[in-house]
Amino acid sequence: xxxxxxxxxxxxxxxxxxxxxxxxxxxxxxxxxxxxxxxxxxxxxxxxxxxxxxxxxxxxxxxxxxxxxxxxxxxxxxxxxxxxxxxxxxxxxxxxxxxxxxxxxxxxxxxxxxxxxxxxxxxxxxxxxxxxxxxxxxxxxxxxxxxxxxxxxxxxxxxxxxxxxxxxxxxxxxxxxxxxxxxxxxxxxxxxxxxxxxxxxxxxxxxxxxxxxxxxxxxxxxxxxxxxxxxxxxxxxxxxxxxxxxxxxxxxxxxxxxxxxxxxxxxxxx
Length: 270
Description:
The chain is 19% helix and 30% strand. The chain has 270 residues and is α+β, with helices and mostly antiparallel strands. The protein has one domain (7-264): Double-stranded beta-helix, CATH 3.60.130.10. Strands 1, 2, 3, 4, 5, 6, 7, 15 and 17 form a nine-stranded mixed β-sheet that branches. The longest helix has 15 residues, at 206-220.
């Protein structure tokens, strides 16, 4: 696609692009927002550097993509549960997103998009890796695609003690979703099971389900599906949870990595 109002530099042929020539803190015109949305659908995850957004501007950017999603349990800033805190430092015992996952896929209507804005990053390390689930599906053989297309899986989240003493916003979610989902905007098929939340493929024995899930979890780790983003201060990423998974690498302890995330409500997968 040719872009008139933004500059788009792909990270890989499969996934990811760095966008420049736009200040997300400004009131974005409809043509600019249309191109940002198009680049997001084309590249699945898009990145912006040297952005200076207030919390209100971060929220407003999320609202450009739709109704905001509230995380079941994560801490948030300034009494606004839509503004999720993402913070790791020398006192942390775990790292947000340290296994491959699609955000809160255990919700009946999982998020369609997430917007992470980091203001503090370590001098080295702290990258995030994204994987293209269209490509993961398309790399499977025809018979496996046919099998998976007939199956559904149970997704569960258990945040008990996950965020320390922070009181959860709601009960731990669980839901059943198709193993292969159809993207509601592009019409493309994508693999929709992940190590973080998918617990069981329905209709199979426990051993069959475990073996198939382990195969798929390993399949997602193929680097030909990936892009890797090196965070800098005041960088921002927008990704499509319907056709990607991501992994936050915790290789910077005891240094600090901190920011906020706004998440956008999605539809029921089909």
